[in-house]
Write a structure and sequence with these properties.
It is a single chain. The protein is of the alpha/beta class. The chain has one domain: 3-Layer(aba) Sandwich (Rossmann fold). The protein contains nine helices and eight strands. Strands 1-2-4-3-5-6-7-8 form an eight-stranded mixed β-sheet, sandwiched between helices.
Length: about 300
């Protein structure tokens, strides 16, 4: 299918600016550019209550942002990890996504500002995200939440982290999770799937960008084989929580995400996988109609499992 017209216009506009590719910038400059693009996407969607705080992590404080929907509670809980290749993005870049999910799914969303690479390399991000998930489970009542209904989710690198936290929680005996929401996740740090070549450039995220992200994140090439970096390579996926996996047709990460969906199914995990035709990587975080549709699907899946 051809590119979605809104996404084609977005790519055309970006090409007209003639900016250098992300992978040619140092991380601090790339972060500024991503913050300008994603954190200024219009008026934020109203949520009943939004609060910033910090919690104790394995190597210092972890900032979090808590979104509480209207209603009495106790609410189900979604621990959300933002994308950005483990290098860029923060709580602000994914603020609107979290607001939409809190309202749409009727759940408390706890967005986690985990440590970023290259200042903090693997496994800093999964350590922080697992600590935050443990904190949410231990403090559910303080959040007006229900500790028996906790999901994890994220997009791109955040989808990778959500998958990894589901693995860690299963292997370490908790906290118990009821769902994993994986939006175009990174599942294979080797970057060897066919779509990584097929969609290598011309659609926003490029293969060279992914190499740049991975090189900043991992300490060495051997870590590409670590299931906590590449959940697709985990030897056993049995017993993991149900999942929704969203993919985009023109995304370098498409095939590895869909392969992960198939591996989960083969392991007996209930999985729904939706490929959005005509879409590019990152479409859920931007004001595209297809992105709104995908967020609606995410909220519906969360509602169903929380019920």
């Amino acid at each position: 299918m051809p590119l979605d017209p809104q996404m084609q216009a977005y790519l055309d506009q970006a090409a007209a600016l003639n900016l250098a590719p992300m992978h040619t910038f140092p991380p601090e400059i790339a972060r500024q550019g991503m913050l300008m693009e994603l954190a200024n996407a219009g008026e934020p969607e109203p949520v009943a209550h939004v609060e910033n705080q910090s919690i104790a992590g394995p190597r210092g404080e972890i900032p979090i942002r808590i979104y509480t929907p209207a209603g009495d509670g106790p609410f189900p809980l979604l621990v959300f990890f933002h994308g950005g290749g483990w290098v860029v993005c923060n709580l602000d870049t994914h603020d609107n996504v979290c607001r939409n999910l809190a309202n749409g799914a009727g759940c408390v969303v706890v967005s986690v500002d985990y440590r970023l690479a290259p200042e903090y390399k693997f496994p800093a991000a999964p350590e922080d995200c697992f600590a935050a998930t443990q904190w949410v489970a231990a403090n559910a009542s303080r959040l007006n939440g229900d500790a028996s209904r906790i999901a994890v989710g994220g997009d791109s690198a955040g989808g990778n982290l959500a998958a990894v936290i589901a693995l860690m929680a299963h292997e370490q005996g908790g906290p118990p999770l009821v769902f994993q929401l994986l939006i175009y996740p990174v599942t294979d740090a080797t970057g060897s799937s066919p779509s990584m070549t097929e969609n290598a450039e011309g659609y926003g995220l490029t293969r060279e960008d992914m190499i740049w992200f991975t090189n900043h994140y991992l300490n060495n090439e051997d870590e590409q084989q670590n299931p906590l970096a590449s959940p697709l390579l985990a030897p056993n996926l049995n017993g993991l929580p149900p999942a929704l996996i969203i993919t985009a047709e023109y995304d370098p990460l498409r095939d590895e995400a869909e392969l992960y969906a198939q591996r989960l199914k083969d392991a007996g995990v209930p999985v729904s996988a939706t490929r959005y035709s005509g879409a590019i990587h990152g479409f859920v975080s931007r004001p595209f109609e297809l992105g709104k549709k995908a967020l609606g699907e995410c909220s519906g899946a969360l509602q169903a499992v929380f019920a």
